[in-house]
Amino acid sequence: MDIVVSNITDSVKAKYSQVAQAVGLEEKPPPPTCMEQCCDFFKQEADNALEDYCPSLTWTQRIWGFIIAFCAGWVLSVVSCFFLLIPRTFAILYTFGNVCSLLSTGFIFGFCNQLKSMCAPVRIVATFVYLAAMALTLYAGLALQNTLLTIVMVVVQACALFWWTLSYIPFGRSLFQTCLLGCCNFCEI
To answer: CA-to-CA distance for 78 and 122, rounded, in angstroms?
Structure first.
């Protein structure tokens, strides 16, 4: 019943818009540019692909997935500290601990929603820096086997994760910046 009413309402709105444009009450919207059409096409294709590869889970499955992934991530991150001076092992354990923790939130919010949220304009830069820092942590630990660079990349990774997390808290970033400026002003006195 709701579908029929919705279809009739959409049809009436479309006819009204056509009549209003013909009479001159409403201007025709400009046709979309080629770039807008391409972006819309790729966005729709990406959404369709995400829906195909992101299965829906029951609430119980989501909770268990979250608990298991979060605990695995926490354990991997804590155990990695014991291998701090062995860059290869440390980089693998710490980074995969973060990946598991990131996946744990995907179980709660849904993997499609998580991915869309990560790519939102407000956090796309933080997401890119966080993912790049994970990749560079692995590179520094596995390919270069440089302990100092691995630790630096872990610090960058942690800062990017912190900044990315603040984007989910309303006014989180601005509040943090205000607190940081207040601390800096206090230290000058």
So the answer is: 30
